[in-house]
Request: fold
Amino acid sequence: MVQVNDSFRALPINSQFRLVENSPQGNKQRFLRFPLNGKVNGLLPLADLRGVIHVPLTEILPVPQVAECLLGIMNWRGEAIWILDVAGLLGAIHWCRRESVRKSGMAMLVQVQNQTVGLLVEQVHTIEVYNPQERFAISASMLPARLGSFLQGYFIDSQGSPLMLIDTHVVIQTFQSL
Reply:
């Protein structure tokens, strides 16, 4: 199900990414792993995704007088979709202000009522499986309140690194209020 549309491609989640089993038993859920910054990785529930697409920045049409984390809109399968800079939303350096600006990224597509929104990240890694009961809570002292409000908690990967679980519903609510 690879769909080619001009210079970007839709990636079928189930066949393109390596599956990493991290929870040997219990109620497992699948998550897409992606870098939030150079040191921290995020997870997005696979159940919340419509797909993942490669996005050249030249395909994004900037929209004036919107929040800085909204990079603009682009055409995807004949539909105008908003592209949201996930790292910028979470308080990191805005995509276009980074030292080495990437010319493309990966958009994780989520549904907002009847509109698709692309959550832009530099790349996506693997699909990982975790037991939601093994999720750790975010304490107020761990992260700035703004960042913590976008997270459902975190998991620890096999190397002992935290994986921040993005709360898709809070991101959607924030997008709707921008």
Observations:
- The chain is about 10% helix and 40% strand.
- The chain has one domain: 3-177.
- The first helix runs from residue 13 to 16.
- The helical segments are 13-16, 86-89, 145-148, 168-177.
